[in-house]
Design a protein that fits this description.
two-stranded antiparallel ribbon; 8 strands
Length: 297
């Protein structure tokens, strides 16, 4: 049993189970005052992870000097960042916290020079993993530094010290630039209604979880396109009077015709059709966000 001055790391029941499974080590002669817990590599996260320790040396996790030299080897023209994170540090975290086979997603909300994306690509190349990453950066260098670093480490950096980086890690990524957000309060007051296209993109993604194909949008018939499950329609104009008088009506719904293989998802300010008929025609009604039709200009 542990020394009476120490606290339990596990419940007594868990400790007894560990003893039964021979996972507790009491030293060579079985008299250690502080036992150790056995961890087997094949049982670690992902089947090939790393047992974490509390002391990470420079040789293990790198340092800012090493990180700066690595970044300079990627950008011979220089960079605005003086203290990037070491790639080895992030790789160490990935080895401990991610599953190399499960497609874990690693999020870095303050991407800076892109070290996290670099580390994910490097670790995937090292252990054959399929981790993915999302990098978020709002500074002006997001395109010229953050994204450009990812492009270069994918393709290969001839002047790099590391041979794998020289060859390039492979992989791919997509860079997206976010537009201005919808001002919910102004929309509710009817002061600033989004254009048809803006609301179409918002509604389509919110309801389907998929990106809209702008080429499919046909505003004349309120059609936004198809997702994997739905045909999507949006009855809308950026005008309060229109929203107050224009609803999903019997004639509008009937004009859609007989349903095909996919249900129809119709977004409008309000509906004037019985729910039973909508179910019969495989139409699902969704009210416009924020119920803006209730507010008069």
């Amino acid at each position: 049993m542990p020394n009476r001055n120490r606290v339990w790391a596990y419940s007594l029941e868990r400790h007894q189970e560990n003893e039964k499974n021979k996972l507790v080590w009491w030293g060579e002669d079985g008299t250690a005052r502080v036992p150790s817990y056995k961890r087997y590599k094949h049982k670690l996260r992902g089947g090939g992870g790393t047992v974490p320790s509390t002391w990470w040396t420079r040789e293990l996790a790198g340092d800012t000097d090493e990180a700066k030299k690595e970044l300079n080897s990627i950008f011979l023209e220089g960079t605005p960042l003086q203290t990037p994170k070491p790639t080895a540090l992030i790789q160490r975290i990935l080895q401990i916290a991610t599953d190399h086979e499960a497609g874990d997603i690693v999020l870095d909300s303050f991407a800076g020079s892109g070290t996290t994306g670099h580390a994910v690509l490097a670790q995937n190349a090292e252990d054959g993993g399929n981790r993915r990453f999302i990098l978020v950066e709002q500074e002006a260098y997001a395109e010229t530094l953050t994204a450009e670093r990812i492009r270069r480490v994918i393709a290969g950096v001839p002047g790099a010290k590391d041979e794998a980086l020289q060859r390039g890690y492979g992989g791919s990524f997509t860079m997206l630039r976010l537009g201005p957000g919808l001002d919910h309060e102004q929309i509710l007051r009817g002061e600033s209604l989004p254009s048809y296209g803006e609301l179409a993109r918002y509604v389509f993604f919110t309801l389907t979880g998929e990106q809209i194909d702008d080429t499919q949008i046909d505003e004349t018939r309120s059609y936004l396109g198809q997702s994997s499950r739905y045909e999507v329609y949006l009855i809308y104009q950026p005008d309060i009077a229109f929203l107050m008088r224009t609803a999903l009506t019997y004639d509008w719904a009937k004009a859609l015709g007989q349903p095909g293989t996919k249900a129809r998802l119709v977004v409008a300010s309000h509906k004037l059709v019985e729910s039973e008929l909508l179910r019969e025609w495989r139409i699902e009604f969704c009210q416009l966000p924020f119920e803006i039709y209730r507010f008069r200009a």
